[in-house]
Amino acid sequence: MNTHTLQNWFNTYKEVSLFGRYITPDHISPLLDLLSLKTEIEQIGLSEDNEPIHLIKLGNGSKKLLFWSQMHGNESTTTKAVFDLLNFVTDVSNDLAKTILKECTIYIIPILSPDGAKAYTRLNFNQVDLNRDAQQKTQKESIVFGKLIERIRPDFAFNLHGQRTIFSAGETKHPATVSFLSPASDLERSITPGRKIAMEIIAKMNTVLQQFIPNQVGRYDDGFNLNCVGDTLANMGVPTILFEAGHYSNDYDREITREYIFYSLITSIEYIATTQITGDRYKDYFSIPENGKCFYDIIIRDVMLKEKNVDIAVQYSEELVKNSVKFIPKIVKIGNLQKFYGHREIIGKKRTIYNENVTVEIVPEAKLLKFHLNSELFLIESTKS
After folding, report:
1. 3-state secondary structure of 41
2. Strand runs labelled E in the chain
3. CB-based burial of residue 87 (10 Å sphere; 0-12 exposed, 13-18 middle, 19+ buried)?
4. What per-residue confidence (pLDDT) applies to 29?
5. Does residue 310 contact residue 300 with C-beta atoms inside 8 Å?
6. Which superfamily does 3-292 belong to?
7. How confident is the model at residue 355 (pLDDT cuts 50, 70, 90)?
8. Which intervals hold domain Peptidase M14 (predicted)?
9. CATH number of 296-384: 3.30.2290.10, 3.60.15.10, 3.40.50.150, 2.30.40.10?
10. Using an 8 Å Cβ cutoff, are 115 and 73 in contact?
11. How far apart are CA 149 and CA 137, in angstroms?
12. What is the Cα–Cα distance from 29 to 284, expressed in whole angstroms?
């Protein structure tokens, strides 16, 4: 599969009704209605606030693949890519789609935390992180998911998430636009047969992505926590792949990243459908650099503040306002930031920095929508999705 083919497929199958960061059950409901005419859709349970949780089933092959997105409600990029994927695999004229559905049975939960999606929060209705509830299963969503695992016993698990703009691919100036992880199955982080299979699939996806975003793929930390869903599945011996949709330059809507997630999904599913994966090629996984935390959204460099020469880091705070996600710039650090990078950098040239309102101090946690360097005005306006 070449890059041109992938690009054409994305342009063909992109679900244009889904855009931006705020994706809720209301957004996907009409899409589920349309999909129900082509494939099997089942309500498998209710959330803590009694929102339905749906399961989409496609294909009748022997290899069982389970995908779930928006376990954290504010991590929606992979949900968009999942619906792009669904448009692809339900196209009866596409030969690869037909092969996939012949070899695989695909199960997809498009939004596991519908309450979190509506509120645009990492937590569910009861303020519980579902990705720390895999063992105790205190929440309805966790119980629903656990029962599904017991019922279908997946051969491959795809845990779809999003990550903050702070992450870099290694300790470098390259953002981690996409990150992957084969979760550990024990405290020793043993390289088990299941992990090797997951690692081989991730290495395959990385090979493809390097043609699009060289040096912008990262490897997520594999510290073990049995309370996490991916670690629990790995502990059960299920080859599990964690996706983290990250930042691409100026892509706060995550529409460009969405495209790379689509490429990754297609690549991984094709590989599973057409290859007898042994895990023998797992070592290439370790060529992917482990994520660093080298980025801020904005760095204002080399300015004078209270007669000191400093750098100022600004990070966007994501806030849901009238069904729209606003990105509010806030100061998070003041000091020497030479070891960090900004997705946007403003060079102060030792000019004195003043807030838009000179009576408001430039301190951590303060908003910084406008500021002056000497007499020159700069704008860091909040954006919205």
Report:
1. strand
2. 40-46, 52-58, 63-69, 104-109, 156-162, 168-169, 178-181, 217-219, 240-245, 291-292, 295-305, 308-321, 324-335, 341-355, 370-373, 376-379, 383-384
3. buried
4. 98
5. no
6. Zn peptidases (3.40.630.10)
7. confident
8. 9-272
9. 2.30.40.10
10. yes
11. 13
12. 40
Rg, C-alpha atoms of the chain: 22
Count of positions (residues) in the chain: 385
- The pTM assigned to this predicted structure is 0.97
Q: Are 152 and 104 in contact (CB under 8 A)?
A: no
Tell me the mean pLDDT in the region 32-47. 97
Q: What is the mean pLDDT of residues 211-220?
A: 98
Question: Do the domains 296-384 and 3-292 match in fold?
Answer: no
Place of tokens 């030479």: 338
Where are the chain's structural domains?
3-292, 296-384
Token pair for 320 = 């849901």
Question: In the predicted model, what is the mean pLDDT of residues 221-241?
Answer: 98
> Do the beta carbons of residue 163 and residue 255 sit within 8 Å?
no
Query: Residue 329 forms beta bridges with which residues?
Result: 316
Closest CA to 340 of 295, 287, 275, 292: 295
